[in-house]
Predict the 3D structure of the following.
Amino acid sequence: MENEKLYAVRHSLAHIMASAVQRIYGVGAVKFGVGPVVENGFYYDIDLGDKKVSIDDFAKIEKEIRKIIAEKQDFVRSEKGIDDAIAWAKAAGQPYKLELLNDLKREGTTVAKNLDADELGLATDGDAKIENVSFYTNGDFTDLCRGPHVANSGEIAPDAFKLMRVAGAYWRGSEKNPMMTRVYGVAFESKPKLDEYLNMLEEAEKRDHRKLGKELDLFVFSDLIGAGLPLFTPRGTVLRRQLDNFVQSLRDEYGYQEVNIPHITKKDAYVASGHWKKFKDELFRIKTREGHEFAMKPMNCPHHTQIYASQVRSYRDLPIRYRETTTCYRDEQSGELSGLSRVRSLTQDDAHVFCRVSQVEREILNVWDIINRFYKTVGFGELKVRFSTHDPANMDAYSGTEEKWLSTEKQLLNVITKKVGDNYMDGVGEAAFYGPKIDFIARDAIGRTWQVATIQLDFNQPEGFDLTCIDENGERERIVMIHCAIMGSIERFLSIYIEHTAGKFPIWCAPEQLRVILVNDSENAVKLATKVMNFAKENGVRATLDDSNNSVGKKIRSAEIMKVPYSIVIGDKEAESSLLPLRVRSDLDANADVEHVYEPEKLIESIANEARGRVGKSSL
């Protein structure tokens, strides 16, 4: 099914669901908000007064939806003048629609109220006066809407949709407004496609990083510390440090220098960078005893600019490349927080390149190489590329002139086309406020896509901070900045990576690489186990000794639950032979039916070599 047709199906199902709810609860009993298409499906915001829709109601709503589909109702488009539309909303007892229409008449748009006019059938043209709005009717249900829809409800597969969940949603996203009930559904071309999606969700639930993070003892949250502020355990800290060390080792090959900056900053820095104007409501702000205003840093670029600006730079010094892994802070709303995916303290493997315009292409290609090498090593397939540009219809959201934006985007596009030709996605409106960027999209093990690394070309902050170098003629030359995060937020990357691997990390970054399981406390067995542990420490292998009183079966099962790549069982038999039977985690073992037996020194050296080589599969 074409994307346009699937969009129309999902949009039509939003209306059909609303009409089904109206049939069940009665005309006038339901107040409707908006019902747009979203990724994989749709939702509709409804207000039933004292009543609430819950998942227990889904069966009867779905049954009514299928009845409407079977009735083969036509979707009929009509138009009303704005005053007639307002009269319609009043007569229908639909206060939310009435509010939208009144805003439209008064202001010419509802975009300023955090809603997209296109979703509402509002025929706007910039600041033009609104005269007509469109409606769609199916059966006895009429809704303010631009479309598109299917021509007839019979075109929708009755077994290819499913209602999924309900959530509270403030009207128009403001907590000052009434709380509505948002009912979500998914819809696909056919039942097999729906089943495939539902199976993916089932697998995703098993892989949920919040669940695995607890089971594998990687991170915790504390109500006393605060929501959105993750605390990493020793095991989780090993994992993130191994990943970050790899990123920085790749950067070191290209001459990046490590720097270090404080965690608070004067307001002035963010005024100069443009961040204050755009993000001041999302900052943790601090007033000193002397009345000075500071902020917990939400990003690192202004700090790095000041290291660059601390001395006069010659063109011979450029490019200058700074790198730093450091924590930033953002005042996210509680309802938006989710495990490691959305947090209030986020650690960035951040880097900034200060260079001349003529050096931009080479520097971006170098970063691109780092990104490809990192994501290949950690086990992702080929990354897709999105060229994220400004939205010409919303220039107020960006710093700088449109002319400068167009020239900078042209420069970045030249790099992209040299690297991948026309094999990239357009991302109009996805640019940072200070410049266009290249976003890299990864597909995880169960088919979901995620934006991961990014390369951002910034011409605005060098203007704001007056960053220059002295050129060949002794004149000041404006430079540019390249922002390049490989993992981005380490917390968010870990949420993706834990679910991608299902917690089965490669040997080189696994928190625990080897589990030594002691059968008993006989002198010879303990002696051999101690010898193995000492070898492991000397060779940098992360090993733990399980000498608990549990049975051997429970000890082996514990190692499996913790997804340890390698484990060995040591008892009197092994002590006598000095040969160690190796158990290899199933996903790493290409020869599962072959017994692996090693001398202690050879085993530890082999594990250490695998870790140093950052291999993804066992060679043992």
In short: The CA atoms of residues 5 and 150 lie 8 Å apart. DSSP finds 18 helices and 28 strands in the chain.
